[in-house]
Design brief:
This protein has 178 residues and is mainly α. The protein has 2 domains: 48 residues, Homeodomain-like (Arc Repressor Mutant, subunit A); 125 residues, Tetracycline Repressor, domain 2 (Orthogonal Bundle). Helix content is 74%, strand content 0%. It is built from 9 helices and no strands. It is elongated. It starts with a helix and ends with a helix. 29% of the residues are buried.
């Protein structure tokens, strides 16, 4: 069993790394340990390499996003839940691109492989809820949805962010035609 202080240290390290590496992909491990308020030994005990730390940040973010699905579905209709969830995913993927400087090509592939299954499962859960209530087309495919929404996180963010409009078009295509 992991001690509570060890869990807290790990959480602080992940939070500090997420913030620091998103802002500047060249942030050093020492800078991250200082930002997290832990010693270098604690950092390296949890994350022996820079790549292991960045991968953990990605995994933590994917787990956070995937875990929001049940709450979204409990609070809103499936199409609205899918819209909210996708906006969160887009924001996370935009941050991921900020982290990208810290990873080599092999790690990028690992991140994609590790996140694909959980993300597809979350999309499936959202689409299934919409199918059950009759708001989402029966032929909606999670892989197609993920591929279509991939364009959203590549659009420029800011005052002229086209992602919300593009997402509305994608969601309109998922609606059952009446």
């Amino acid at each position: 069993m992991v001690r509570s202080d060890a869990r807290e240290n790990r959480a602080r390290i992940l939070a500090a790394a997420r913030e620091a590496l998103t802002a500047d992909g060249t942030t050093s491990m020492n800078q991250i340990s200082q930002r997290a308020g832990v010693g270098a030994g604690t950092l390296y005990r949890n994350f022996p390499t820079r790549e292991s730390l960045v991968l953990a940040v990605y995994q933590d973010e994917v787990a956070r996003i995937v875990a929001t699905v049940p709450d979204l579905l409990a609070r809103m209709p499936p199409l609205e839940a899918l819209r909210e969830w996708t906006i969160d995913l887009v924001q996370a993927m935009r941050r991921k691109h900020g982290l990208g400087d810290a990873l080599g090509p092999g790690a990028h592939q690992t991140v994609n492989e590790q996140s694909y299954g959980p993300v597809i499962a979350a999309i499936t859960q959202l689409l299934d809820a919409g199918r059950r209530n009759g708001s989402i087309r029966p032929d909606a495919d999670p892989g197609d949805f993920l591929q279509l929404t991939g364009a959203l996180w590549r659009t420029a963010s800011g005052p002229e962010d086209r992602a919300p409009h593009m997402l509305a078009l994608i969601l309109d295509g998922l609606r059952v035609q009446r």
